[in-house]
Design a protein that fits this description.
By secondary structure, this protein is of the alpha/beta class. Helices cover 30% and strands 23% of the residues. The protein starts with 6 loop residues before the first strand and ends in a 10-residue tail after the last strand. The chain binds adenosine-5'-triphosphate and magnesium ion.
Length: 345
């Protein structure tokens, strides 16, 4: 393992439930994964599969009715040792220091990151000054209002904003959608986080701008040596940006491995369904066969394999009774499906 592949974030057996008026919603059910320095892990799955909840747990941004299982571990490696984020008080100083410092975040909607009443520059400078110790450790130097402003301008230039020196004093609503997305990336990266969490950051953008933003993110990731968690429901986006992929369904990871191999030879029937819904690269024609059937309500998780109610290859008596464990396919790939487990047909 090279230094650039050091595990930066390791999640073990993460479980998250919501207490609701209708009952317990099990949103994340025993999820484990590793994000490595300088690499991107894509998390893909349909709406409601638990992608956002799993990654919001990492920054402890869950609503008050959420509960993280006591046995969960969210281990972040830092220069001064390892911290288990799952064990920290959600509103404590330590979590605030990690959020926006060691861990940067970008979302689909830039207005979730920006306040409408302050200029872009003011908000970037505030983040830089709040995390000035972290930033100084990452890139050296010291930060006061003047140097923070210069750093913010450099970051805006770095994400391709023309006239950054003027734009920095604009309000978020004065920028176009694409520019706002760039400003949000600049804000998230201005503290040089070691981990970037990107939750559908390009979904709202048109295809050309989406491709530009993805390229920019890859470039910045290489430059800063960050680990990245990239969340999307789009396998095509995963293919462009992530070396590794974890496929989620109803709160569980059903398949994982290097993206290229998973796409070339998907093992789980759900992954095959997701890929069949992609436009063909050679003909450009979209086969209109998304995975048939609806995702069951998380209030009524099916017994056994969560996917068995929609699975074209379900084996009655097995898949509807027993939750499949993770079966390794080789050194880097695994699948949670009875077709591959012990005693498989
Ligand atoms: N505050 C909440 N209270 C109750 N249930 C919630 C809450 N937030 C999320 N959930 C449930 O948790 C499950 C996972 O939601 P999550 O937002 O992580 O899905 P997702 O994979 O990110 O979907 P999308 O692609 O739509 O963003 C869903 O069933 C959702 O309804
Ligand atoms: Mg989501």
């Amino acid at each position: 393992m090279t230094a650039s592949e050091r595990p930066l974030l390791e999640i073990r057996e993460l479980g998250v439930s919501f207490d609701t008026d209708e009952g317990m919603v099990r949103a994340v059910d025993g999820v484990s994964f590793v994000a490595r320095q300088g690499r991107t892990l894509g998390i893909v799955g349909e709406s409601g599969s638990g992608k956002s909840v799993a990654t919001k747990a990492v920054i402890r941004l869950l609503p008050a009715n959420a509960r993280i299982d006591p046995g969960s571990a969210i281990l972040l490696r830092r220069d001064d040792g390892e911290v288990d984020i799952a064990g920290l008080p959600a509103k404590g100083r330590e979590v605030r220091r990690l959020r926006g410092g060691d861990i940067g975040m970008i979302f689909q909607e830039p207005m979730a990151s920006f306040s409408p009443v302050y200029t872009i520059g003011n908000q970037m400078m505030e983040a830089i000054l709040e995390h000035r110790d972290h930033l100084a450790r990452r890139i050296g130097g010291s930060f006061d209002r003047k140097t923070a402003r210069e750093h913010a301008i450099r970051m805006l230039e770095r994400v391709g904003m023309s006239n950054a020196r003027l734009r920095i004093d604009q309000y978020p609503h004065e920028l176009s959608g694409g520019m706002r997305q760039r400003a949000m990336i600049a804000l998230a990266l201005s503290t040089h986080p070691s981990l970037l969490i990107a939750d559908e950051p390009t979904t709202a953008l048109d295809v050309t701008i989406q491709a530009q933003i993805l390229d920019l993110m890859l470039e910045l990731q290489q430059e800063l040596g960050m680990a990245m968690l990239f969340i999307t429901h789009d396998m095509g986006v995963i293919a462009q940006i992530a070396e590794d992929v974890a496929v989620m369904y109803l709160g569980r990871i059903v398949e994982r491995g290097p993206t290229r191999e998973v796409i070339r030879e998907p093992a789980h029937p759900y992954t095959r369904g997701l890929l069949a819904a992609l436009p063909r690269l050679d003909t450009g024609r979209r086969r209109l066969t998304p995975v048939p059937g609806d995702i069951p309500s998380p209030l009524q998780r099916p017994a056994g394999c969560p996917f068995h109610t929609r699975c074209p290859q379900r084996m009655p008596g097995l898949c509807d009774r027993l939750v499949p464990g993770d079966t390794p396919l080789d050194a880097t790939r695994s699948v949670a499906c009875h077709l591959y487990g012990e005693g498989a047909p």
